[in-house]
Amino acid sequence: MKLLVTGGAGFIGSAFVRLVLGGDAHTVVNLDKLTYAGNLENLASVEGNPGYRFVRGDCADHGLLDQVMDEGKPDAIVHFAAESHVDRSILSPQPVFDSNLGGSFGMLEAARRHGISRYVHVSTDEVYGSIDEPHEADENYPLRASSPYSASKAGSDLLALSYHTTYKLPIMVTRASNNYGPYQFPEKLIPLMISNALEDKPLPIYGDGMQVRDWLYVDDHCRAILAVLENGRPGEVYNIGGTCSLPNLTVVRQILAGTGKPESLMKTVTDRPGHDRRYALTSGKVMRETGWSPLVPFEQGMRETIDWYREHQDWVRRVKTGAYRDYYERNYAGR
Ligand code: NAD
Ligand code: TYD
């Protein structure tokens, strides 16, 4: 298939582009706005691949989308592009609204105008909100988003599904748990803690650190998205979890052990407003329907991730720009 991938210069999108171009079944046009989180360095290994083309642009730019669709005539769209960080969505909700709702709307409208044979809308388990023990969300669980980020993702999921119900577009929605792995921007828990630990900086723990997330290695997530793209049923939602639920403190202690740094680097800070206590989901449907299951155990994924950040400190230095330091100051100072 000729794929139009959006957000392919980000963390998960770039892993997906590298995965797809590692085989010979699909070609890729990557449409990315290159926000602070977009980085073409993540795609250095596919530059020059004849099956790959990059277009810089915004998913909310309908005129540009017409041009990209006319030129590339893609068979399928995989829509990753989004503002993806909860803390930034709390500090500045406007870009979240513009990209996650406006950008998703732009892509759906482009698919409606030009026709498309497959469309994966990439979403998150955060749309289900905080879930009490011992419950787990299946795909029919109510949407109870808490942050501007998760609310924008829930809204765009519903919009995407409405394009299947109303216009019969072949839309599939995936909802994955927390990803980790190489090339993740150092604002999310795992890359922030690894990069701070390697620099002997404090590791800011929100509240009591007992919030639970289900960790999924990024390459496992990308294989699941490819499985849904190729074998999923239009109009369906697919949860994708790592089957690895851990409290934040356990994750951070593992990072300190893996980097050989002392626990005294951990620093409790004021909790995130509206902080979801626990995410939990079942992935039985995607496993049954596509045969996918996660392959990378957490200990192995974490070891590889720590090694990657240790070996790519230049990459980290380059993304920790002045704008990153401003964000860090806004989010963490006086907390
Ligand atoms: P990221 O922040 O690393 O990358 C986002 C990419 O989208 C960047 O390259 C950015 O430049 C691009 N982008 C943002 N707005 C755009 C716009 N309007 N037009 C074009 N490009 C735009 O994000 P990520 O962590 O790779 O997440 C990718 C997708 O997966 C998102 O939809 C996110 O909601 C979803 N998701 C993420 C996780 C996670 O743990 N990171 C888990 C589940 C689902
Ligand atoms: P994050 O990586 O932002 O993902 P999400 O909030 O989308 O699940 O955060 C994961 C967990 O780690 C969440 O419970 C918040 C917590 N956290 C901290 O304790 N300190 C931090 O500096 C960050 C960024 C997150």
The CATH H-level homologous superfamily of the domain at 2-181 and 217-241 and 280-296 and 324-332: NAD(P)-binding Rossmann-like Domain
* Low-pLDDT residue spans: none
Bound molecules: nicotinamide-adenine-dinucleotide, thymidine-5'-diphosphate
CATH architecture descriptor text of the domain at 2-181 and 217-241 and 280-296 and 324-332 = 3-Layer(aba) Sandwich
Number of helices: 12
Q: What is the makeup of the main sheet?
A: 7 strands, parallel
Please state how the strands of the largest beta sheet are arranged side by side: 3-2-1-4-5-6-10
Tell me the radius of gyration.
Answer: 19 Å
Structural class: alpha/beta
Sequence of secondary-structure elements:
EHEEHEHHEHEEHEEHEEHEHHHH
Mean pLDDT: 98
Number of strands: 12
What is the CATH fold-level name of the domain at 2-181 and 217-241 and 280-296 and 324-332? Rossmann fold
